[in-house]
Design a protein that fits this description.
This protein is of the alpha/beta class. Helix content is 40%, strand content 17%. It has three domains: 129 residues, Tetrapyrrole methylase, N-terminal domain (Cobalt-precorrin-4 Transmethylase, domain 1); 108 residues, Methyltransferase, Cobalt-precorrin-4 Transmethylase, Domain 2; 40 residues. The strands form two sheets. It has a five-stranded parallel β-sheet, with helices on both faces. Strand 6, helix 7 and strand 7 form a beta-alpha-beta unit. Helix 7 packs across helix 8 and helix 11 crosses helix 12. The structure holds S-adenosylmethionine. S-adenosylmethionine binds next to helix 6, strand 7, strand 8 and strand 10. The site of S-adenosylmethionine has 24 residues, from helix 6, strand 7, strand 8 and strand 10.
Length: 301
């Protein structure tokens, strides 16, 4: 059993919606993964503020950035830098402090740590060491964008940032062309025109996209249209290339009336061996396709 399971209680324990972590006291030896706002400071949670003010140390992606956030809430606390380049060196140090009973918060510059942000190595290491890792949830740009995109959310994939080099970006998109789930991407606005151009090339101009820019901030913009219309809109308004953005792409829609390639292949083989009517009957039976659709296809052949 990991420490987290102990913290969360045994399965026989009654768990209700109102079950809460005791907030008045920070658990000794715990690593708190604390989400911070993605723009609007009003989105920080009371629990995040409590944890940030009570832990012994805050590990942050950029100490100056986090000190500004803390100053906004009149929180004074010690910080330690923890970014992509020193995370692996710091993981043992952090685990040692936790083992000595210190409590530590881990934050990134914005949103939920580890989501296209540092923290994965530290969390994995701490869990391997059976140390307690506690989530303090809050804003995340991907989920915030999904919540307003109007695209299916029952299943989706988070793709993070696309490669910056065009060749790699295009092959990543090509590999996703038949992905039927909604796809969520982070993107840098300076690359947005290149990205959307590649989306048009690889997924087609008619693919539906939602661009969610500057979420929770003054210039929050949510634009939903076909990929080609989005591209035209971005090109005619340079203001849309500022700030931060999430792109949400509708999954590949399968046409229920389309004839799958394997059925077409079977039909091609069979019409050479038997009357068209019989060939269509067999393929219709095998693939559950209407006979008249197959017959039309044999005429086109
Ligand atoms: N950990 C963060 C989260 O939980 O969303 C994401 C960090 S990642 C380094 C930064 C990217 O998130 C930005 O380039 C942008 O794609 C997206 N992002 C962050 N804040 C945003 C906002 N307010 N509006 C739109 N996109 C945002």
């Amino acid at each position: 059993m990991s420490i987290n399971q102990i913290n969360q209680g045994s399965s026989s324990e009654q768990v209700s919606e109102s079950s809460q972590h005791p907030m008045s006291s920070i658990a000794k030896g715990s690593l708190y993964i604390v989400a911070t706002p993605i723009g609007n400071l009003g989105d920080i949670s009371q629990r995040a503020l409590d944890v940030l003010s009570q832990v012994d140390l805050i590990a942050c992606e950029d100490t100056r950035h986090t000190q500004k956030l803390l100053a906004n809430f009149s929180i004074k606390n010690k910080t330690l830098s923890l970014h992509d380049h020193n995370e692996r060196q710091r993981q043992e140090y952090i685990a040692d402090l936790l083992s000595q009973g210190q409590s530590i918060a881990l934050v990134s510059d914005a949103g939920t740590p580890l989501i296209s942000d540092p923290g994965f190595h530290v969390v994995r290491y701490c869990r391997q060491q059976q140390l307690s890792v506690v989530p303090v949830p809050g804003a995340c740009a991907a989920i915030t964008a999904l919540s307003v995109a109007g695209l299916p959310t029952d299943r989706f994939t988070f793709e993070g940032f696309l490669p910056s080099k065009q060749g790699a970006r295009k092959s990543t998109l090509a590999a996703l062309a038949n992905e039927s789930r909604t796809m969520v991407f982070y993107d840098a606005p300076r690359r947005a025109i290149d990205t959307v151009t590649d989306i048009v090339d690889e997924l087609g101009g008619q693919r539906h996209i939602v661009l969610a820019r500057e979420l929770t901030k003054t210039f929050e913009t949510i634009y939903a249209d076909s990929a080609e219309n989005l591209l035209a809109w971005l090109k005619q308004d340079p203001n849309q290339l500022k700030g931060e953005m999430v792109l949400i792409i509708e999954g590949h829609q399968i046409d229920p009336t389309a004839i799958p390639p394997e059925a077409e292949k079977a039909l091609r083989l069979l019409v050479n061996e038997m009357p068209k009517k019989k060939a269509c009957g067999i393929v219709a039976e095998l693939y559950g396709i209407k006979k008249n659709k197959l017959y039309d296809l044999t005429i086109a052949m």
